[in-house]
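User: Predict structure, ligand adenosine-5'-triphosphate.
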Amino acid sequence: MIHLDNLRYRYRSAASPALDGVSLDIGRGSIFGLLGPNGAGKTTLISLLAGLLTPQEGHIAIDSEPLAAWRDGQPAAIALVPQDYAFYPMLTVAENLDFFAGVQGLAAPERRRNCAEAIAFACLEAVVNRPAGELSGGLRRRLNLAIGLTGAPDVLLLDEPTVGVDPQSRHFLLQAVQRFAAAGHTVLYASHYMEEIEAVCAALAIMDAGQVLTSGTLAEVRRGKASALTVEMASSPPEALTAHWRARFPALEAAGNRFCFPDFAAAELAALLAELAAAGVALERMEYGAPNLEQAFMQLTQHALRD
Ligand code: ATP
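Assistant: Predicted complex:
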């Protein structure tokens, strides 16, 4: 449905391009995840789709039509829910929704209907008369989402929509996004939370430095990456043993008594278990196999800090 072809964009003051030849295909009625470290180019890509920026090279097509032509016939059909709160804190929830529905040029009956639907969709009935600035983090995120829905869009661009919310609100927001896609709409979902992408996205792309490193279904993105081993022990292994592991596996990650070997050959498993037994360390949990999304992401993007 959405076809991105070789998109390039460089901000005027920037030394390197924010997008450097991005090509992707996003299917209708799906939630497509966009992952990448800070500065990867996710927001820039979303801004191009939202029409806030224009590609300097490359093309965007929706349903085989150039983006601008597709939007001309239906200006509210793509909505952006930005990272930052995009509402007026002194206005109530209902006033904010009415204002943003009005900005889209909707006639009064349609505006009222869309606002009522957005309120119901984001479960905001109990707070419609509260000033937005007084809402909790979870309710603010729900209002941000509801504002994005006031134009009854077909495509929703979500830029880290769950930052700063509790697990209950996160669960609600993820379910809401799934409901939206299940109704045949399309979602581009940028997030740093791998477990969210794993939970809701049919396909995803991992970006870094303005380029797509890999894209496909979750299984496709994980396939071909080195297997990972995670072991959790009942007590700390002796220093000498961890030093020995570090020498053999430079990418070893440790958190308390939990050790992750991102690139581990099955043939080494028996030797590692023997080492643990010899050191008298009891094993609590062990997981071996294809990397999860976070491990695949780290293998692809490496560990160097970006900012
Ligand atoms: P984050 O996860 O931190 O939100 P991102 O993946 O969304 O990052 P972008 O915000 O698209 O990345 O930024 C891509 C690159 O473009 C970065 O190097 C960033 O510093 C640069 N950039 C973004 N906005 C501007 C701007 N207005 N002017 C100059 N450079 C910019």
